[in-house]
Design goal:
By secondary structure, the chain is an alpha/beta fold. It has one domain: Resolvase, N-terminal catalytic domain (Rossmann fold, 3-Layer(aba) Sandwich), CATH 3.40.50.1390. A five-stranded mixed beta sheet has the order 2-1-3-4-5, with helices on both faces.
C-alpha cells in the first residue's frame, strides 16, 4: 500500500452490491478516483450481520486510517447500524468518508454533518 503524500494512514474503500444483477464498477471507479489504497467488495445483502469483505477490512484498520464508501447505505444496513459502525470506527481512531453525501468525519465539519444527518434520520 502506498502512503505517498499522506501522513494520516491508509484510505480503505468498501463497496457492496446486493444482488447478482448489480455491478460494483461505479463504486470501485469512484473509490479508485478518491485515492483508496485498497478496496474491499462484498456481494451480499446489507441486512447480513457479517459480511466477509467488511469484516476483513475492519480487522486491518489502524488509527489514522479512513474508510471510504460511495454512499452511506453501502456500509450500514440501517441508520442504527450505520451509527454503530461510525462509533466503532471513531473508537479505533478511524475516519469515515462518504463520497455521495460529501461527509468526511476526519474534519470537524464532516463530523457535524454526520451528526445532523443522523438526527434527521
Amino acid at each position: 500500500m502506498s502512503t505517498e503524500n499522506r501522513t494520516n494512514g491508509y484510505l480503505l474503500g468498501y463497496c457492496r452490491v446486493s444482488t447478482a444483477d448489480q455491478n460494483q464498477e461505479l463504486q470501485v471507479d469512484a473509490l479508485t478516483a478518491a485515492g483508496c489504497d485498497r478496496i474491499f467488495t462484498d456481494h451480499a445483502s446489507g441486512k447480513l450481520e457479517h459480511r466477509p469483505a467488511l469484516d476483513a477490512m475492519l480487522e486491518l484498520l489502524r488509527p489514522g486510517d479512513t474508510v471510504v464508501v460511495w454512499r452511506l447505505d453501502r456500509l450500514g444496513r440501517s441508520i442504527k447500524h450505520l451509527l454503530e459502525m461510525v462509533a466503532l470506527l471513531e473508537s479505533g481512531g478511524v475516519g469515515l468518508k462518504s463520497l455521495h453525501e460529501s461527509i468526511d468525519t476526519t474534519t470537524p465539519t464532516g463530523r457535524l454533518t454526520l451528526h445532523l444527518f443522523a438526527s434527521i434520520a
